[in-house]
Amino acid sequence: MSLEGLGFLARWAHLALAVAVVGACTTLLVAGRSDRPTARAWEDRVLRWLRVLVLLALATGALLLAYQAAYLSGRTAAAFEGRTLAQVLFETQAGHVWLVRHGVLLLLFALVSLRADVDGRLDWLAGRGEALALGAGALALVAAGGHAAAVKPDPWPAVTIDAVHLLATGIWVGGLLPLALLLRAASRPEGADARPYAVLAARRFSRLALAAVVALVISGMGNVVAQIGSIAALVGTSYGRLLLAKLGLLLMILALAAVNRRRLVPALSGEAATVGRPAMRRLARFVTAEAMLALLLIAVAAALGMTPPARHQQPDWPFAFRLSLGALQSAPELRLRALIGSQVAVLGVAAALAALVVRSRRGPLLAGAVVLVGMGLGLGLPPLAIDAYPTTYVRPRVPYQAASIAQGARLYREQCAACHGPSGAGDGDRAATLPRRPPDLRSPHTNQHTAGDLFWWITGGIPRGGMPGFGDRLGPEARWDLVNFVRALGAAAAARMLGPSVERGRPWLVAPDFTFAVGPTPTRGLRDYRGRRIVLLVLYTLPDSRPRLAQLAAGYNVLGLLGVEVIAVPGDAAPDAIGRLGADPLILFPVVTEGAREIAAAYGLFARAPHAEFLVDRQGYVRALWAAERPSVRELNRLLAEIQELNEEKAATPAADEHVH
Amino acid sequence: MTERMIAAASLALTALLSAAPGASAHAVLDRADPRAGSTVRTAPSEVKLWFTENLEPAFSTVRVVAADGRPVDRGDGRVDADNPALLRITLSPLPAGTYRVIWRVVSVDTHVTRGEFSFNIAP
After folding, report:
1. How far is it, in rounded angstroms, from Cα A159 to Cα A143?
2. What pLDDT shows up at residue A396?
């Protein structure tokens, strides 16, 4: 068996044991203390189990530690090296969690190993409660070493949700086998003395389990949001598919649990000596089946723990279509159909709600509801369907950066302009020879496609349109550069709507990130200002821009007080730009000497003018654009007013995603 | 009844797992300086790699080699003290040519990811 297989088995066993420990402690407490011989025998047996469970948890924990050492270092032999084991324990977060958890487990083992007489009620409660607290601590802390711990910027909400999820699992799933054991013991002829005790325990457990399942579902949804975040990640990544498997298993278990709760638990009641015994045996059998399915569920959970979370996997979209409201923009006649379909579906939902309220005629109402919802979806969804490909939801491998756009522009001239035309209008020299005229790359329709769509077409071509694939000729980075360039083309066309005034609360134009250096100083990036400062990016040409630069230099202190950094980029990308500007006036803001060519190439798409100023807000969006053919001096007060507009903006827009989709 | 249900669940689980695609190793590298595949005019003194989640310093490494495989870094690869998601390494003065950056990182949830890319220094 492979190292990974061994790691999975150790993790599965360890997780199942930790769950079982919590369940055993919970069931003992829920069932309560009893002086009936059969109940006492059951309790003693569960306690013996508990000691074995904790011991096995410690052993599998040690196995997991060895596996981690081998896996993290990349060497199998490291599983037995003291130095590497110490590194894992003392220099990783998961190692710290391991130390705390296993300290808690050792304490728990000592506690349950004591053969103290706990006949006193308070002593009994204290002992069982302490065992439960320690077991719950050991289980909940698993969250601190898992995927939740890696959520940025603050992992603690995700860790807390995950801990709740684990505890709910422990209470419900872990309690199933001890309960089944009790029911089986009480259903035997010689166990009659414990039958009322078992019935009471089953009822209490049923109520507690219901609460645990609710907590499980709610915290599970929290986990989905934290670790998955999109339908594409759910159906297109191994993590997402494992989660779907887990959900499928959970539904089966919940169906079994519902039968237990609604039919078998009430059937336990009865006065006659034989009434309830068959129900008790059946309940025991169903609860055992529930537990076996739950063991599979924990296996999936262990596999999830060893799989990179969907947030960090590239989705492989399995369907040939996807649903998008954008599809309606290019085909207005489909809007009516989608609208009718949605209204029919709403009628169906209303009928379903009515069926819940009206008890008579529920069957016909529900049937009508199903038909209406089905018709509504069948009518309304097809207009929203547009073509999709395996890479449709892939996160671009190369960020939306000036350097990438500049490189994409070069590649476009070499590889694409012959057909698509110099500016992407589809009017290239060879366009007339193609089966279909190339689409205008700048149009809104092109922008409705994801970056992954563009990547797919560049890689594989569009045979029916006469477009060849470039997968063999261009590496993936080059293809992503082309994607970024095409996205920038579309953004540039839309940017014509931007003017020198800020539109309040309406950020939409993502500012391409760029890196730059000023003389010998370290490299900086636009992203470094994210969340901290507004950036006024100035593309300038000498000598025309000199008066404006002087004006900005004079106002630099005021701009700084308002939270603005000015970054000046020579349009000709001269390495000696600072020298050319001279000492009069003294310019204190950064003048780019390294990286200017790429910045000018990328931002030049948005404003083809000798002098252009881009006002980039703290979230990374271009909010105002002033392009001047003849850069006469513009009143500084107008610029200050726009900056004040940005400073007064309170709506917290999410930061621009530099991986444009 | 229940045994058949468990068997069906196992089969479904197996089918689902076998259909799972492999994870992409490059998903976690957010950006790099020098940029992957880029050509720079000035030799960089440092390589910086930003990742999508915080790293474990003890097990995260980066190397830079020339086209002939000769190491050109100073062997001081480390996770930045201020930004746990940033891995950096300083370089010897580099002549023009093609260089490869090779990284292997562990995130705080103990997942190992690795990757590599090239950059060029123009003559």
Report:
1. 5
2. 83
Residue in B27, B38, B109 nearest the CB of A146 = B109
Q: With residue B89 as reference, give the H or E element that holds it.
A: strand B86-90
Kindly state the greatest CA–CA separation across chain A. Answer: 106
> In which residue ranges of chain A is pLDDT below 70?
1, 115-119, 269-276, 330, 631, 651-661
CA distance A268 to A278: 9
**B7 CB within 8 Å of a chain A CB:** no
What pLDDT, on a 0 to 100 scale, did the predictor assign at position B25?
Answer: 29
pLDDT of amino acid A432: 87
> Which residues of chain A have a CB within 8 Å of the CB of B85?
152
**Per-residue tokens: A621:** 């969006």
Query: Distance from first CA to last CA of chain A, Å, rounded?
Result: 41
Whats the size of chain B, residue-wise? 123
Q: Which of A408, A433, A452 is nearest to A605 (CA)?
A: A408
Residue A2 belongs to what H/E stretch?
none
Chain B residues closer than 8 Å to A308 by CB: 23, 27-28, 111, 113
Nearest CA distance, A239 vs chain B (angstrom): 8
Q: Supply the pLDDT for residue A651.
A: 61
Chain A CB contacts of B53 under 8 Å are 150, 152, 312
Strand order through the sheet with B29-33: B29-33, B46-51, B86-90, B78-79
DSSP H or E stretch at residue A323:
strand A321-323
Nearest CA to A402 among A392, A410, A413?
Answer: A410
Q: Which two tokens stand for residue A432?
A: 């007339």
Answer whether A91 sits within 8 Å of B58, measured CB to CB. yes
The share of chain A scoring above pLDDT 90, in percent, equals 40
CA distance A346 to A357: 17
Residue A379's φ and ψ, nearest 5 degrees, are -85, -40
Residue B12 with chain A: CB contacts under 8 Å: 245, 248
Question: Shortest CA distance to B3 belongs to which of A340, A289, A249?
Answer: A289
Neighbours of A641 (CB within 10 A): 12
pLDDT digits 0-9 by tens, A47-68: 999 999 999 999 999 999 999 9
Closest residue in A to B14 (Cα–Cα): A245
**Count of beta carbons in the 10 Å neighbourhood of residue A528:** 14
B12 closest CA partner among A241, A574, A223: A241
Predicted confidence at residue A643, as pLDDT, reads 92
Concatenated DSSP letters of B39-63: EESSPPSEEEEEESS-B-GGG-EEE
Q: Show which of residues 19-58 on chain B sit within 8 Å of chain A, judged by CB atoms.
A: 19-24, 26-28, 30-31, 33, 35-38, 41-42, 44, 52-54, 56-58
The rounded distance, in Å, linking the Cα atoms of A131 and A138 is: 11
| Number of A–B residue contacts, CB under 8 Å | 142
Identify whether the C-beta of residue B8 lies closer than 8 Å to the C-beta of residue B54: no
pLDDT above 70 (res B17) = no
pLDDT beyond 70 at B85: yes
Interface predicted TM-score (ipTM) of this complex, two decimals: 0.78
Q: Which residue has the higher pLDDT, B59 or A268?
A: B59
Shortest distance between the Cα of B48 and any Cα of chain A, in A, equals: 10
Interface of B with A in 73-102 (CB under 8 A): 85
**pLDDT at B41 > cutoff 50:** yes
Question: Contact B108/A309, CB-based, under 8 Å?
Answer: no
